[in-house]
Amino acid sequence: MKCSGRSAGFIFGISAAIALISGLAALAGYSVFDSFSHEMRAATTATAAGAILAMIADTMLPEVFKGAPHFSGIMTAAGFLCAFALPMMGS
Question: Which end of the chain is more exposed for a tag (fewer CB within 10 A), N or C?
């Protein structure tokens, strides 16, 4: 954003708004999912974790590795899923 000419106040305001909205969403999610089963909460948490992993891979990895494929997030999430699933296959 800074490279696009946005002011420091604008960047700080956007970051503060995202933090506030995220906190409110977490509170709402905690309230709603409190009555759900343990399995449903675990599945939702795993899905959210995978989505965050894919988002980080899509936004940060291309910055680090110029020319990375556009589907690097899905590849990263699939790799972590395989790493998670392999130990369970042996038991």
Answer: C
Tokens representing 70?
A: 């556009």
The first and second tokens of residue 44, run together, are 């939702």
For residue 38, which phi and psi values (nearest 5 degrees)?
-60, -40
The tens digit of pLDDT for each residue in 40-89 reads 988 888 888 888 887 777 777 666 666 666 777 777 778 878 877 877 77
Kindly report whether the global pTM for this prediction surpasses the value 0.70: no
Q: What is the DSSP string of 5-72?
A: T--HHHHHHHHHHHHHHHHHHHHHHHHHHTTS-HHHHHHHHHHHHHHHHHHHHHHHHHHHSTT--TTH
